[in-house]
Amino acid sequence: MKRSSFQRYSLKTRVTLFTLVMILLSIWSLTFYADRMLRQDIQHLLGTQQLATVSLMATEVNDELSSRQQALERVATQITPAMLRHPEPLQRKLESLVVLQGLFSGGVYVTGREGRALASVPVSQGMTGVNYADRDYISETLQQERPTVGRPTIGRRLKVPIVGMATPIRDPQGEVIGVLAGVINLNVPNFLDRIDLNSRHLPGNYFLVATQQRMIVASNDKSRLMEVLPAAQANPKLDRFIRGYEGTEVLVNPHGVEVLASVRHIPVAGWYAAVTLPTQEAFAPIRRLEHNMLVASVLLTLLVGGLSWWMVRRQLAPLQTTAKMLAQLADPQQPLHPLPEGRADEIGLLIGGFNRLLNELSRRQSGLQESEERYRNLTERSPDPIVVYQGETIIYANPVTVKMLGVESAEDVVGQPFVAFVHPDDRARVTETVLQGAPLGESTPLSEVRVLKADGSTMDMEIHRTSIRFDGQPAGYVAIRDISERKHVEAALRESEALYRTAFSTSPDALTITRLPDGKYLEVNEGFTRMFGWSRDEVIGKTPAELGIWHDPADRLALLQAVNDKGHCEHFETRFNCKDGNTITVLVSTNAITLNGTPCILSVTHDISARKAALKQIQQLAFSDPLTGLPNRRFFMDRMRQALAASTRHGQYGALLFVDLDDFK
């Protein structure tokens, strides 16, 4: 029943119908539960009985096959290699084994390694001389050198269904030299017929199945003898039995009938015995119980339905009166006023709750109007452009948006597609990320777009969308922020970084950036590699100590101390070691910087080795003779002034010794 149709009925009708439905649901739920429990109990009981029956049957068949296998093995030990070479004694030996012939209704024969029958009984069947190497019980016995039970097949001489059993014949050294085989004729009375005789007083069908061949060997239903079962995966539960499972299952047999099947395996032959009972017969008592419960449920439903109708009608009479009064209050011309509370029961509580709800709704309506007014004022006075759209069409734009776009009024924006004010190259991205529908309250990440003004110029903007409800319908609230100035700053910053990187990489001096805590090199320029000989890859990530670049490590400590104290150090003279072992004199200037939150040092190293050497040479030329290297008059006069000054300062006398060397120069 559709909800709209159901709502047309009165409350007492609906309560009565609901009560009837609940009773029906309860009864049928109980019926379903009882049916399920009874099915499980009956299945367990019948399964236990069937399993006990099939276990006895499987044990009997296994014992019969084992006794025949053992008989073959005993006779095989009596056959000597000489008998295989001379078939006449072998034939007489087989004819003397009357008991063995009685065990195998289809005959007994002996073959050599090649599989050809050398002797057989009864002679009338003409098995001697026939090659049986293609029979599975002969070939498997020769290959695996162990007793084998073959699959059911049609006898080559008998032309009827048979089952073959074989055991190897060994020489004194244990080598297999032949096979002793016995054949059970399934078309004449044999031990398998006892299954049918023992099962006539029990319900269901009984089967012996060869698992490897998926073939029925014996059954009380003779029409299914030698029937081949469905291929693997056609019936998973049947496959489970064939793979070795023993127990009881409900399955659909190859004839399409659902049965309760119990299985026990017969180890000696690789078969299994099965007992099946159709579920229609097994669960017949449950169906009779279901019919009786249906009749009882119908009678009980009619009785409870009548009582429910009378009770509900009596109790809901005051509620009907209240409903009429509420219908009158729905008239817009009627003022809202509290309803009279006439009873102290649930209906009276309902009316009192309704009266309190009227008061609360009035209070909330006033608060909602105030909230909407505040929201509109905030939106109208916002310094940022704000747009609201539904679908892809703009339905509201605040005054800042009108000014930003350069239009005359909001009417020039409202009703236009949102993407009409977006640069064509950005429209696809905006449609995909901003204009797509989203759950209420969900926001999109900040997105940069280019906005088209009325005059065709563009501005770089950052927009943020939030899903809202506008006039009761889903809408998108878009806040827009002008980021043109920020984009200019970012462009200037990128240019500054490019200039810095160019200056860093092209400087003839050695420029390095190292971490302050551990001194590891973060960056070096080409001037560093030319000055010291190490490549950039050899330096990055290494410390000065690992490179051994400082000639005097104490100078590095002094430099770091100066940086820690003042934040920089200029023209610090020290000596550095190069990769080739040479030592150079340099001036180092450093500044403390921060990269990605890590304190670092920017160092500029200028090689002054050549300048130091030039100064030394100038001093040498100024105070010594360029030819002999001996001190000259300038050096004499400098030392003379120093000696006179020292004598005057300390009040001491001095002496001058003059030596004249003839022809010295």
Summarize the structure.
Helix content is 45%, strand content 23%.
Unreliable residue runs:
none
Secondary structure tally: strands: 21
Overall mean pLDDT:
81
Largest sheet: 6 strands, antiparallel
Radius of gyration: 56 Å
Class derived from helix and strand content: alpha+beta
- Strand fraction band? 15-25%
Question: Helix share of residues?
Answer: 40-55%
Q: With helices defined by DSSP (H or I, 4 residues minimum), what is the helix count?
A: 21
Distance linking N and C termini: 138 Å
**What form results from the Cα inertia axes?**
flat
Overview of the molecule:
This protein has 665 residues and is of the alpha+beta class. The chain has 21 helices and 21 strands. Strands 1, 2, 3, 4, 5 and 6 form a six-stranded antiparallel β-sheet that branches. A five-stranded antiparallel β-sheet has the order 8-7-11-10-9. Strand 14 and strand 15 (458-470) form a beta hairpin.
Helix/strand layout:
Layout: H1 3-6, H2 11-78, H3 81-85, H4 87-96, H5 98-103, E1 107-112, E2 117-121, H6 136-144, E3 148-149, E4 153-154, E5 161-170, E6 176-185, H7 193-198, E7 205-210, E8 215-219, H8 236-242, E9 247-252, E10 258-266, E11 271-278, H9 279-282, H10 284-315, H11 317-329, H12 346-381, E12 386-390, E13 393-397, H13 399-405, H14 424-433, E14 447-452, E15 458-470, E16 473-482, H15 484-506, E17 510-515, E18 521-524, H16 526-532, H17 536-539, H18 544-547, H19 553-566, E19 568-577, E20 583-595, E21 598-607, H20 609-623, H21 633-650
Antiparallel strand pairs: 1-2, 1-6, 3-5, 4-5, 5-6, 7-8, 7-11, 9-10, 10-11, 12-13, 12-16, 14-15, 15-16, 17-18, 17-21, 19-20, 20-21
Helix pairs in contact: 2-10
